[in-house]
């Protein structure tokens, strides 16, 4: 073995030699050999002497087989995936170099008095060669020198791309919005949400620095020979400052091209006072403009006048059908395991489809790959524990979290005597594995399960559950192209177990299952275009319900409705491109295709007449996977942004969407027994078109954000139900539903103060949502075929969320909500039949329940801020509904003992105090 240690003078002295022609032919075979072993064999069979430094070669194992091949051919193959170059000095010596190449002639411009012509430049079209000798400095910190890439002749480029990822040195978590700048220059970039960066650097020596508040500053000397990768791993900054303000994307709300996007800061929600001290991501969402629900305790969400079934809620790319615990009082999402929440309510990206109104894209954070860590909370009703365990340090880890309830006292405080004797319990668990295989590949896998069980009466137990699993592979193809593949499966089901020791005991169940495979590719086409494209396919399996008798005395007849099956597929492409420094667009196109599949029995009704048993013509039978009916069409997604000033922009968008799955529910809000129905011969997919226009402005050095956005939406084939409809276990459900038109419009205002002792936001929404069910047949016409308010139509919605810092450890928070009462149908008269009084009701949703308002207060205590201690703690002392407002949840009327009685129900009619202890280690 030979080593080459020579000075720059000796290396230059060889350059007068002309490159030798390699005419030696050899036979060489090696299997799973190190490069060191290969070079030793090569010296034996070729007669060449190789000069190199052994540490350059690494420990990778390679294989190869060569017959009558030149030495240069073998060396090119051996070093093709490395940064090693070689130079044939003469017929017996070969020199290996790292990064650089040895040239056997000088560029004409090197000679004094010689002017390089265009022809000369073209002939020797290559970046200049750079040599760097490290010089020992007497004073000052040492700067690490990193050589990037493998120098090549005739490459024809003066700049190269450096990319990589920035992770915290201690936790291994990606650091976003960290600046990476060229020292002494004006060039720089910032890391994205996953810690990735990419920067163009000139060939040769560059000094790079990382800069971020609270983050250690790193400085490296980078020598660019070609494109390459470099990761940074800074730690936390230990500087003592009067105040540390961490800001990310200060102008993001103004700069972002797409409209109607909401991003929730997970750390921000810990101080918002919520019921029973439980941090709730989705409850925080409804304090923002354009997002609301039907009332306190409602599990669903209404976005820009859309129904609760028109929201696509994704947890790590898998659908979560019922995101609520305990009648909607708690979210089914664990705040300790959630990494990011992005809500699209305006311009939905082309990669998403299948819902009309919005997408809730929720991602679980990666596990800490540096050290064991965790977070926990103890409250009066629930407890939460999350652990993060490294599997292979700096490479892979697993996150496991779980929540549960251990007390039923909350039910005993509700304003309903029957509920005081009820019981309720829930839990959810989640696990995520993440593995950074190498610089170009990483994988993750998530599994989630939640279950609720409750008894509203003494003889029935209701239960429902969510289960999902998702797998994702991210691959960096090259510096301009990346791809990810995801596979997910979701299942939602509910059951009712009725046991009263009677002849009507039964067990009822329902289940929906879906599996999706999705490929998403990203291409950076030049400096102005970011193209995303791909395809997806989703298989639905719906078991509409079955009922079985319980006990030998039960007279309930067994019934199992026929399974529904559907396949929804899509192709999509979008381009986020810059026209000028002021004008940018995001234009996308999605083509979705849906097929209802057998086996199935489809009921065919006489055309032009209401669907009923009297108009049934025939029942058509379809075999397994036979296509029953197809639907589809293009979905356009267009959004644009124009800068009026650097901190003031105007945005506009157009969105059209298709939805092939529908909720069947006769309730105002989402309930555990809601079922889902696929489009088929008798039920068409829902369609919607939305336009929006908004102004976005920042003030006072970005301390304040102001936005004003308006929208208008038209819908078709919106599902509603006939009076007295029977939806559960109905074999001819199409006879109970109606499909009509919808329209919604509104204006959203948001003022947000992001920093200072007093911070928070004020949101106001004026919105209207209407439905029209018209037909030439009276039994299919509602309110004379005129538009009427939807059940969730609430014109005015105001939310004020504030936080005031007394000191670094102590703060007050307040949350005030006001909403217009939702529409209801009231009796306007009565009539007598067989001696009993019955109500004569008004037009549907003509009246409203009283307006809703609520004030919550909390006092927050941070633990001391010592860096070296076992755990960092946080106390939250809050009072929910401080004013004791008896907000009505619903108003209803029944006939009892021959007379009409009115009833009002509410969820929380008294102040609810709570104290929660959180700690993180």
Give a short overview.
The chain is mostly beta strands and 921 residues long.
The CATH superfamily of the largest domain bears the name TonB-dependent receptor, beta-barrel domain
Shape: globular
Strand content: over 45%
Give the radius of gyration.
33 Å
Reported by name, the CATH topology of the largest domain is Maltoporin, Chain A
State the helical fraction.
under 10%
- Mean pLDDT level: 83
The profile of the biggest β sheet is: 22 strands, antiparallel, barrel
Number of domains: 3
**CATH class descriptor name of the largest domain:** Mainly Beta
Distance between the termini: 52 Å
Low-confidence stretches: 1-20, 113-128, 133-140, 239-248
Domain TonB-dependent receptor plug: 287-355
Keywords: Cell outer membrane, Ion transport, Iron, Iron transport, Membrane, Receptor, Signal, Transmembrane, Transmembrane beta strand, Transport
Membrane topology: Multi-pass membrane protein
Family: Belongs to the TonB-dependent receptor family.
How do the helices and strands line up, and which of them pair or pack?
Elements: H1 8-13, E1 25-34, H2 35-46, E2 49-51, E3 61-70, H3 71-78, E4 84-88, E5 93-98, H4 118-123, E6 144-148, E7 159-165, E8 179-182, E9 188-190, E10 196-202, E11 204-211, E12 219-224, E13 228-229, H5 252-255, E14 261-264, H6 281-285, E15 291-292, E16 302-303, E17 311-315, E18 318-319, E19 324-325, E20 330-331, E21 338-344, E22 358-364, E23 373-378, E24 382-392, E25 396-405, H7 409-412, H8 417-420, E26 423-436, E27 441-457, E28 460-476, E29 481-498, E30 506-525, E31 529-549, E32 559-560, E33 564-578, E34 583-597, E35 600-605, E36 616-622, E37 627-645, E38 648-659, E39 661-664, E40 675-678, E41 686-699, E42 704-721, E43 737-753, E44 758-772, E45 788-789, E46 796-805, E47 810-819, E48 823-824, E49 827-833, E50 836-841, E51 847-848, E52 852-862, E53 872-880, E54 888-896, E55 899-906, E56 912-920
């Amino acid at each position: 073995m030979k080593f080459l240690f020579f000075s720059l003078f000796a290396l230059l002295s060889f350059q007068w030699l002309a490159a030798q022609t390699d005419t030696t032919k050899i036979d060489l075979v090696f299997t799973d050999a190190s490069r060191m072993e290969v070079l030793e064999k090569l010296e034996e069979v070729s007669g060449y002497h190789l000069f190199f430094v052994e540490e350059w070669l690494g420990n990778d194992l390679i294989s190869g087989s060569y017959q009558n091949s030149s030495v240069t051919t073998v060396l090119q193959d051996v070093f093709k995936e490395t940064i090693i170059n070689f130079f044939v000095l003469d017929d017996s010596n070969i020199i290996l170099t790292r990064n650089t190449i040895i040239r056997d002639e000088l560029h004409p411009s090197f000679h004094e008095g010689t002017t390089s012509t265009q022809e000369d430049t073209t002939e020797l079209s290559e970046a200049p060669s750079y040599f760097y000798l490290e010089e020992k400095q007497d004073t000052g910190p040492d700067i690490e020198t990193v050589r990037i890439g493998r120098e090549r002749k005739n490459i024809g480029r003066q700049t190269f791309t450096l990319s990589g990822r920035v992770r915290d040195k201690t936790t291994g978590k990606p650091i976003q919005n960290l600046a990476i700048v060229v020292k002494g220059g004006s060039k720089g970039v910032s890391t994205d949400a996953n810690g990735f960066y990419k920067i163009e650097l000139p060939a040769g020596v560059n000094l790079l620095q990382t800069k971020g508040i609270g983050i250690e500053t790193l400085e490296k000397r980078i020598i660019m020979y070609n494109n390459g990768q470099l990761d940074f791993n800074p730690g936390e900054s230990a500087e003592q400052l009067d105040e540390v303000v961490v800001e990310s994307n200060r102008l993001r709300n103004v700069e972002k091209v797409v409209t109607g996007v909401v991003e929730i800061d997970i750390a921000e929600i810990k101080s918002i006072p919520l019921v029973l001290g439980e941090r709730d991501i989705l409850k925080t969402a409804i304090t923002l403009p354009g997002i609301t629900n039907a009332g306190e305790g409602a599990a669903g969400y209404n976005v820009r006048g859309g129904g609760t079934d028109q929201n696509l809620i994704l947890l790590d790319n898998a659908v979560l059908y019922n995101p609520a615990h305990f009648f909607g009082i708690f979210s089914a999402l664990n705040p300790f395991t959630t990494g990011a929440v992005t809500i699209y309510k305006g311009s939905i990206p082309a990669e998403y489809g299948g819902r009309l109104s919005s997408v809730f894209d929720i991602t679980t954070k990666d596990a800490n790959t540096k050290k064991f860590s965790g977070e926990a909370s103890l409250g009066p009703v629930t407890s939460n524990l999350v652990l993060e365990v490294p599997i292979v340090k700096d490479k892979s880890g697993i996150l496991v979290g779980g929540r549960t309830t251990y007390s039923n006292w909350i039910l005993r405080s509700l304003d309903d005597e029957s509920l005081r004797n009820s019981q309720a319990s829930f839990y959810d668990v989640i696990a995520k594995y993440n593995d950074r295989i190498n610089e170009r590949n990483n994988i993750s896998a998530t599994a989630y399960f939640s279950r609720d069980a409750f008894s509203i009466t003494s003889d029935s137990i209701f239960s429902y559950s969510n289960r999902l699993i998702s797998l994702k592979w991210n691959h960096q193809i090259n510096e301009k192209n990346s791809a990810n593949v995801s596979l997910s499966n979701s299942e939602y089901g509910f059951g009712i177990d009725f046991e009263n020791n009677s002849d009507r005991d039964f067990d009822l169940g329902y289940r929906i299952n879906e599996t999706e495979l999705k490929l998403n590719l990203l291409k950076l086409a030049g400096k102005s275009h970011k193209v995303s494209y791909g395809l997806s396919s989703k298989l639905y399996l719906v078991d509409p319900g079955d009922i079985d008798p319980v006990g030998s005395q039960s007279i309930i007849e067994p019934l199992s409705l026929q399974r529904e099956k559907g396949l929804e597929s899509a192709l999509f492409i979008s381009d986020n491109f810059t026209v000028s420094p002021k004008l940018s667009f995001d234009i996308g196109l999605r083509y979705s295709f849906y097929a209802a599949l057998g086996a199935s029995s489809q009921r065919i009704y006489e055309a032009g007449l209401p669907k009923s048993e009297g108009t049934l013509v025939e029942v058509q039978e379809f075999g397994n996977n036979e296509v029953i009916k197809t639907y589809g069409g293009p979905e356009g997604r267009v959004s644009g942004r124009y800068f009026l000033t650097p901190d003031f922009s105007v945005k506009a968008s157009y969105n059209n969407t298709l939805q092939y799955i529908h909720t069947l529910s006769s309730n105002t809000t989402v309930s555990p027994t809601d079922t889902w129905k696929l489009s088929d011969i008798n039920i068409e997919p829902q369609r919607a078109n939305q336009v929006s226009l908004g102004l976005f402005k920042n003030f006072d050095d970005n301390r304040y954000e102001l936005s004003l956005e308006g929208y208008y939406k038209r819908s078709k084939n919106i599902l509603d139900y006939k009076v007295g409809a029977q939806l559960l276990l109905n074999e001819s459900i199409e006879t109970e539903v109606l499909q009509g038109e919808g329209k919604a419009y509104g204006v959203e205002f948001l003022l947000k103060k992001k920093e200072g002792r007093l911070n928070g936001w004020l949101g106001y929404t004026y919105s209207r949502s209407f439905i029209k069910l018209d037909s030439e047949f009276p039994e299919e016409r509602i309110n004379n075929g005129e538009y009427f308010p939807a059940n969730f139509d609430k014109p005015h919605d105001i939310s004020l969320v504030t936080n005031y810092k007394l000191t670094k450890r102590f703060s007050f928070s307040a949350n005030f909500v006001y909403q217009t009462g939702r529409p209801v149908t009231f009796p306007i008269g009565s009539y007598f039949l067989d001696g009993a009084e019955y109500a004569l009701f008004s037009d549907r949703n003509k009246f409203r329940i009283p307006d809703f308002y609520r004030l919550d207060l909390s006092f927050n205590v941070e633990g001391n801020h010592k860096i070296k201690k076992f755990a960092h703690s946080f106390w939250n002392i809050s009072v929910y509904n401080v004013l004791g407002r008896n907000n009505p949840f619903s108003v209803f009327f029944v006939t009892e003992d021959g007379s009409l009685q009115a009833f009002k129900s509410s969820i929380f009619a008294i102040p609810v105090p709570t104290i929660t202890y959180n700690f993180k280690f």
